Amino acid sequence: QNYPLYIRSIPTENELKFHYTVHTSLDVVDEKISAMGKALVDQRELYLGLLYPTEDYKQRGYGYVTNSKVKFVMVVDSSNTALRDNEIRSMFRKLHNSYTDIMCNPFYNPGDRIQSRAFDNMVNSMMMQVC
């Protein structure tokens, strides 16, 4: 339904620009999913890659969709040349695994905002590696 279950940004001074990029990236994710059609169902790799670069804010948005149609969007600073496609793909796999752990929790109601210390710690460690 395209409402965020979890949003995190570092640094926080440009947080509004990151939120805008995330929400506009969701439209691109929907377009890519509909363009792929049934090919996405047959595909084991759910990484969508670079969604679109934004020239104004020097950010890149990447996308990933789970089998249950949960969308992950990651926005990174394009000046960070250390991040390659394989690193981004690996980060999405870690996010997907942590999200799966949350979904397996019997006390979590699907659709609620994610409020998990383990998930926060994993996201923070990934963000610190990137920064």
UniProtKB/TrEMBL annotation:
Q: Which InterPro entries match?
A: Longin-like_dom_sf, Sedlin, TRAPPC2L
Which SUPFAM superfamilies does its entry note? SNARE-like (SSF64356)
Name the Gene Ontology biological process terms: endoplasmic reticulum to Golgi vesicle-mediated transport
Q: Where in the cell is it found?
A: Cytoplasm, Perinuclear region; Endoplasmic reticulum; Golgi apparatus
| Tree of life domain | Eukaryota
Q: Which Gene3D superfamilies does the record associate with it? A: 3.30.450.70
Q: Does the keyword Cytoplasm apply?
A: yes
Descriptive protein name: Trafficking protein particle complex subunit 2-like protein
- List the source organism: Chloroceryle aenea (American pygmy kingfisher)
Give me the gene this protein comes from.
Trappc2l
